[in-house]
Write a structure and sequence with these properties.
about 40 residues; single chain; about 0% strand; mainly alpha; 2 helices
């Protein structure tokens, strides 16, 4: 039972780190596709 709880906690921590990293890396769509011929 202890290993299962530890695995659940590790999954939550890894997911939280992933969300933080992806949130800082990704650009909003208005910035990512902003060129001279695009209207958003």
């Amino acid at each position: 039972m202890r290993a299962f709880i530890l695995a659940c906690v590790a999954t939550i921590v890894i997911a939280a780190i992933g969300v933080a990293v992806l949130d800082s890396v990704q650009q909003p769509v208005a910035e990512a596709f902003a060129t001279t011929g695009v209207r958003l």
